[in-house]
Write a structure and sequence with these properties.
Number of helices of chain B: 8
CATH class of the largest domain in chain B: Alpha Beta
Radius of gyration of chain B: 23 Å
CATH superfamily of the largest domain in chain B: MucB/RseB, C-terminal domain
Radius of gyration of chain A: 17 Å
Oligomer: heterodimer
CATH topology of the largest domain in chain B: Phosphorylase Kinase, domain 1
Number of strands of chain A: 0
Chain lengths: 171, 260
């Protein structure tokens, strides 16, 4: 009963959890270790989870498990290890764009990935939570356990850094 | 640079990110839009931030959970649950409570039902929203997981007489996730599941004649859109907001119009 409730609430957000951990840790093995640990932790504390939204709740546990894990195991510097290719979404053949369009798009994807990876971790995580997870400042503040004003300034700074990176990349 | 608006709000470049992130209330947002009219720099910044957001959402690599991780987690949970089973038990009997709540709901909805004489259409709509909610609660969003419509569509043959219309909307930002068989009222119906950012959209379909414009409703916090085309009555249910649901409907309708 408890387990099926947990499944229903939490497992639909597993992809989001792995994606966040992957962007924080930089490789799939570490990301999946972090998420596995986080999900078991979430299960343990599930009784304390009362009605708020499941996705931010799970992401908070993933983020904090990840932060502890990174502090123990890694320098806070992101190197994305070549598994970007395996995450490439499947594209149906019939609408396949021309080779030029494909390579242009790949180039753009590359620039975007690089700009994100180049962000310092504090800014990278707020940008992910805001632009990809589309969470509110309040939800992000709760996840990071910082004041809303801090969230606001980190988002503003993170966007600026991305803007500069991407302008340089495009030339 | 700052602009003073008649309502007493002082809005300047500082509020750009709050505005862009939807963190301002309506009055403050309007005041900021006044500021935008006079501040070219904010307009440029806003356009650039929009572009960056669009690129991040459509082009940034996303790493999904592997099947291996899903399995590890499932078995890890099973162990954890077994280990804890004997200790936890006091407290409410949730199953009984749920049954009681459902009975109360049935009685009260039975009353409205009688008074309002709902149309067949609204019966379907509510049946579909309930089916969508049941699927979410049971953690059973998808029976067949695939991003290829050539896998999803054939999966339904033999399970229902309705051959679903499955569209590839990846380019419009709504990738296909899979499909599920649901029984909203008295018959099985395919639901095709698409992704919209962080949300899922279930698109139900049953054979019906005619064409109608989409009608938006908010039911139990879900955005629900119903319309007819291509010989189907479509109902899209999602926890995404109305704008997103509308964009999905538009993209789907445009795609379906080009399909037989």
């Amino acid at each position: 009963m408890r387990q099926s409730r947990f499944h229903a609430m939490v497992l639909p957000h597993l992809d989001d959890a792995v994606n966040l951990a992957w962007w924080l840790a930089g490789n799939r093995t570490d990301a999946e270790d972090i998420v596995q640990e986080a999900v078991l932790r979430a299960f343990k504390y599930f009784d304390r989870f009362s009605g708020e939204k499941a996705r931010p709740w799970l992401l908070a546990i993933v983020r904090n498990t990840g932060a502890t894990w990174m502090a123990k195991n890694r320098p806070r510097h992101l190197t994305l290890v070549g598994d970007v290719a395996e995450a490439e979404p499947e594209r149906p053949e019939e609408t396949a764009p021309s080779p030029e369009q494909q390579s242009e798009r790949r180039e753009l994807q590359h620039e975007i990935d690089r700009a994100m990876a180049a962000l310092p971790p504090d800014f990278r995580e707020v940008i992910l939570l805001r632009e990809i997870q589309e969470l509110s400042y309040k939800e992000i503040a709760a996840i990071l356990d910082v004041p809303i004003g801090t969230v606001m300034s980190r988002i503003a700074r993170g966007r600026k850094l991305l803007q500069i990176q991407l302008k340089e990349a495009v030339g | 640079m700052s602009a003073f608006d008649p309502m007493g709000y002082l809005m300047d470049c500082e509020s750009l990110h709050l505005y862009f992130d939807g963190e301002l209330d309506t009055v403050a947002a309007l005041a900021f839009e006044k500021h935008l009219e006079t501040c070219a720099q904010c307009r440029t910044e806003l356009a650039e931030f929009r572009e960056i957001r669009r690129h991040l959402q459509s082009e940034l690599t996303r790493m999904p959970a592997s099947d291996g991780l899903r399995q590890k987690i499932q078995s890890g949970l099973a162990d954890a649950d077994e280990a804890e089973a004997p200790i936890r038990r006091r407290g409410w009997n949730w199953q009984k409570l749920a049954v009681a709540a459902a009975m109360i709901a049935m009685v009260s909805s039975g009353t409205t039902f009688y008074l309002e004489q709902p149309s067949e259409e609204s019966l379907w709509t509510h049946g579909i929203v309930n089916a969508h909610e049941r699927a979410l609660l049971a953690g059973h969003e998808i029976d067949v997981v695939s991003s290829s419509r050539h896998t999803v569509k054939p999966w339904f043959s033999g399970k229902t007489t309705i051959a679903p219309l499955v569209a590839d909307l990846t380019d419009a930002g709504f990738p296909l996730i899979g499909g599920r068989l649901d029984v909203p009222l008295d018959r099985a119906m395919p639901a095709i599941v698409y992704r919209a950012g962080a949300h899922l959209i279930s698109l139900y379909m049953r054979p019906a004649d005619g064409e109608t414009a989409p009608r938006l409703q908010k039911i139990d916090g879900f955005s629900v859109l119903a319309w007819r085309q291509n010989g189907f009555a479509f109902t899209a249910v999602t926890d995404a907001d109305a704008t997103e649901a509308g964009a999905f409907q538009k993209a789907f309708a445009a795609k379906a119009a080009t399909m037989p």
